[in-house]
């Protein structure tokens, strides 16, 4: 038993109790490892013990490898159990019923199927399943050839009694054992990719937070560059006229405001006797010299050059002569 290959089609098929099927009918796997549903060579074995023929586009029921036709792998053709095969039609709606149909001529192998509709009264229900049946295994074109198990239905190594087990539902062999609580295949938190739901959620949150941080950094960089560009666009003349760091206004040299500070210092330093000394020292000078001294004094004590008075011309007597400087001196 342990030397049997689960990846070849081998065995004899029966269309009913003790009634052998045509040689083109092959088991869906190795019948030495357990009874199998039978389909025509080259066809696809489906879930619910059905078959599909690509040449004619027919979904049908055929037979099984159990000569007594009592094994669970043997399809129920109902009222058409005397036929080698019976076509199937899916009755939609809420019933999900697959109905077996009568085939005229009682052909032993697949041909064009007769027209079949869902009857409104009496019907032969073969099985109940969804509108799309699972592909289980692809049969070879002759007995002893290799089969192609479809994903989810690949058989596991044989058990001690020679029965093979498969990894998916709907297999025509022995049903897989119920997994224990530690079996990851029964853990609702384990996804098809091997990551738990919590791990997937954590990855999703991490990616979202990282994307938000990157966007925030880009926005901050953009604002800084925009502010720097705005500062660079301020005219230099406007910067020169703006208040400095200590709140003072920078004035250009030569303005009246800049000349006021030294003028105030000079006025505080002046004393009456200094003026008298200058007058005494220049008493013998001409009236023009006295006018120049008066102008100098006004320049020293004035805050602005605009406040200076225009010197008056020297006094002239009625006879046209200037008064003598000696007459201006006291005594």
From TrEMBL:
It is found in: Membrane. Residues 147-194, 233-331 are annotated as: Disordered. Its main location: membrane. It comes from the Eukaryota. GO terms for cellular component: cell periphery; membrane. The keyword Transmembrane applies. The chain crosses the membrane at residues 201-223. Keywords: Membrane, Transmembrane, Transmembrane helix. Residues 160-175, 281-292 have a biased composition (Low complexity). It is a single-pass membrane protein. This is Uncharacterized protein.
């Amino acid at each position: 038993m342990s030397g049997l290959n689960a990846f070849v089609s081998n065995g004899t098929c029966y269309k009913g109790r003790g009634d052998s099927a045509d040689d083109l009918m092959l088991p869906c796997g190795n019948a030495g490892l357990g009874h199998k549903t039978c389909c025509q060579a080259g066809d696809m074995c489906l879930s619910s013990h059905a078959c599909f023929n690509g040449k004619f586009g027919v979904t049908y029921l055929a037979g099984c490898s159990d000569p007594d036709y009592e094994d669970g792998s043997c399809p129920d053709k109902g009222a058409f159990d005397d036929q080698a095969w019976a076509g199937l039609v899916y009755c939609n709606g809420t019933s999900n019923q697959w109905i077996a149909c009568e085939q005229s001529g009682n052909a032993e192998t697949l041909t064009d199927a007769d027209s079949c509709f869902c009857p409104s009264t009496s019907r032969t229900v073969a099985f109940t399943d969804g509108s799309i049946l699972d592909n289980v295994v692809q049969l070879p074109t002759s007995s002893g050839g290799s089969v192609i198990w479809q994903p989810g239905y690949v058989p596991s190594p044989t058990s001690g009694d020679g029965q093979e087990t498969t990894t998916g539902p709907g297999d025509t062999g022995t049903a897989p054992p119920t997994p224990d609580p530690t079996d990851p295949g029964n853990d609702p938190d384990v996804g098809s990719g091997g990551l738990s739901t919590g791990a997937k959620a954590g990855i999703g949150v991490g990616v979202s937070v990282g994307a938000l941080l990157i966007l925030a950094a880009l926005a901050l960089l953009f604002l800084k560059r925009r502010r720097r560009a705005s500062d660079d666009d301020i005219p230099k003349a406007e910067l020169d006229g703006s208040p400095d760091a200590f709140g003072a206004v920078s004035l250009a040299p030569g303005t009246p405001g800049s000349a006021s500070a030294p003028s105030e210092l000079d006025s505080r330093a002046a004393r009456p006797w200094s003026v008298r000394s200058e007058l005494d020292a220049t008493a013998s000078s001409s009236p023009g010299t006295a006018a120049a001294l008066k102008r100098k004094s006004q320049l020293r004590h004035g805050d602005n050059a605009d406040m200076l008075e225009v010197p008056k011309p020297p006094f002239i007597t009625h006879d046209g002569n200037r008064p003598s400087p000696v007459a201006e001196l006291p005594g």
